[in-house]
Design a protein that fits this description.
The protein is of the alpha+beta class and about 80 residues long. It has helices at about 50-55, 70-80, and strands at about 1-5, 20-25, 30-35, 40-45, 60-65. A hairpin with a 2-residue loop joins strand 3 and strand 4. The chain is elongated and about 45 Å long.
Length: about 80
């Protein structure tokens, strides 16, 4: 599962106005990828609180989610208790 946001205001986070932020909540290595005009950078769990803060306060605007078949299978197994 991947949540994609666009930065619409400046904040103290590593992203800037117009940058895209991709957040994969179930990936613990490179769970946040910053897609900026000068290239891409990946971050670990240390920036998750910044993503949540900026999404909550409107600095990051949600664009879309991407869900893979493997995500659906995993969630189905969890619900069915397998």
């Amino acid at each position: 599962m991947l949540h994609v946001y666009e930065c619409v205001r400046e904040s103290g986070a590593p992203w800037s106005l117009g940058d895209r932020v991709a957040y994969a909540p179930f990936d613990f290595r490179q769970c946040v990828v910053l897609l900026a005009t000068d290239g891409a950078r990946s971050f670990g769990t240390e920036v998750i609180p910044l993503v949540h803060r900026d999404a909550f306060n409107g600095t990051l605007v949600h664009l879309y989610d991407q869900v893979d078949d493997a995500d659906i299978d995993s969630l189905t197994r969890d619900v069915e208790g397998r």
